[in-house]
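Before relying on records like the one below, remember that each one covers exactly one chain. Contacts with other chains, cofactors or solvent are not represented anywhere in the record.
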Amino acid sequence: MRQTGCVFMVQIHNAADAALAQALRGYRWRVVEYQSWERVFADLRNFSAEAVVVQGECEQIPQRIAALRQAAPGAALVWQAHASACQRIAALDAGADTCLSAAIEAREWDALLRNLSGRRRAVPGPAPCWHVDGQASVLAGPAGERLPLTANERAFFIRLLNAPGQCLARERFFPSCSEAAHDGARRVDVLVSRLRSKARRLNIDLPVVAVRGWGYMMLPAQAEFCEAIVEA
C-alpha cells in the first residue's frame, strides 16, 4: 500500500502525543519521532520528509523553525504549542507554514499535512523541477527523466537540491566520513563521474555543474531555481 508521505515529528520536552503519531500511521503516513534537535537535523541532511511537525515550546523556537526551513525547504512545517499570538507570528515569520495552539483530531491533521505538503510540491509552470523520488530511488527530471540512484548518490542530490543556486564544496557532501579531506573530495569526484556515465547510458543530461577547484551545484535549468522537491 502506497504511503501518503513521511512526517518528522519533533518532540520538545516529551510534548508530542504518541497517540497522534500512531493515528497518522493509520492514515498511511510514515512517522519518525525525535526528541533531539541534533538528530532531526542530521537526518534531514540525508533523508527527505513531506512534513516536519514541532510540538511543544522552547526559548529558541523562531531560530529552530528558521533552521528547519533552511534544512527542508520543500517540506510542510507545522508548530503546535500553547503559544501567544506574538510567538506564533514569530514562528510564521521564521518559516512555519502554520501554527496550532489547540489540539485537533487525527483526520484533521491528515488533511492539513496533505494540503500543506501538496502546496509545497506544487510547482507553477508546465515543467517541475528536478527532484529525488525516494520511493523509487531515482532522480526525476522535468522532461520525465528517471536516473536510478544509490544511497550515496541520493544523499549527494538531496544536499544539492536543499541548496538551490549554491555551489557546495566537495568536502561538504559527506562530512561525517572518517577519510581525510582530500580523499573525501576525491570520493565525490568519483561519484559524479559514475553518475555522468550512468546518465549518458540513459541519454540523460546530468543537471550538475562542476565548479573548478571548488565543488558542484545544480544546473539552473529554469529562469530561477525552484525549491528543492524531495519525495520520501
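The CA atoms of residues 177 and 184 lie 8 Å apart.
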